[in-house]
Amino acid sequence: MISNEEIAKMIDHTNVKGDATEDDIKKLCSEALQYNFASACVTPTNVVLTSKLLKYSDVKVCAVIGFPLGVQTPKTKAFEAMEVVSKGASEIDMVMNIGGLKSDREELVKEDIQGVVKSAGDKIVKVILETALLTDEEKIRACVIAKKAGVDFVKTSTGFGGLSGATVEDVSLMRKTVGSKMGIKAAGGIRNLKTALAMINVGATRIGTSTGVQIMEDIK
Q1: Domain ranges of the chain
Q2: Mean pLDDT, rounded, for 175-184
Q3: Would you say residue 161 has pLDDT above 90?
Q4: Rounded to an integer, what distance in angstroms lies between the CA atom of residue 90 and that of residue 210?
Q5: Are the C-beta atoms of residues 44 and 84 closer than 8 Å to each other?
Q6: Active-site position among 110, 126, 139, 155
C-alpha cells in the first residue's frame, strides 16, 4: 500500500498558466512546502522566484521548456534549458517536436531532445509527448526516441489547448515501451486521488497536476 508521503513525493504541483501572478506562484510554493511535493512546476519567467521560495527545502524547481507547442528550434530549447538551470531549476519538462515525429524526422526529434539533455547537465529531463495528438504507433516511437536521447522521464501531456490529458491506456503503453526503470509522468486532467492512483497503478512515477492539494485532501 502506497503511503501518503509517497504519493506527495510523486506530485509535481503545477502552475504554468500564462497569467500566473507572483502571488499565484507564492501560493503554489507554499502548498508545495506544506505537503512536501516532489516539485513546483512553473514557466521559465517564474523560476527565479520559485527557486528563492523553495531554497531551503527538498521540493524541486521544475521548469517547462518549449511550452506548450514544442515548435521552437533545438538550439532555442537548448538555450532555454541552460538558462532555467542557471536560475535554479533542477528539473525540466520539455515539449517534443511533435510535427517532426509525425513527419518521420526521427533524427530531428532526437536532436531536439538531446540538446536539452546536454544543457541540463545532471538535472532531470522529462519529455512531453502530447499523447492526444499521437497514434499508438507514434507514442511508441516517441518513447523509444526519448529513451535513446537519454532523458529521465517521458510525460503524457501539457494539459493545454483543450486536448485530452493522461489516460490509463497511454501510461500503460508508455510503461510497456520504456521498461521498468525509466520514469513516467502522467499529466493533464488528473484532479483527484482516484485518477492519480489509477495512473500510478499502471506505471506512472510522477503526477503533474494543478490540484495537488485536492489530491492530498482526498486521502483524509
Answers
A1: 65-219
A2: 98
A3: no
A4: 19
A5: yes
A6: 155
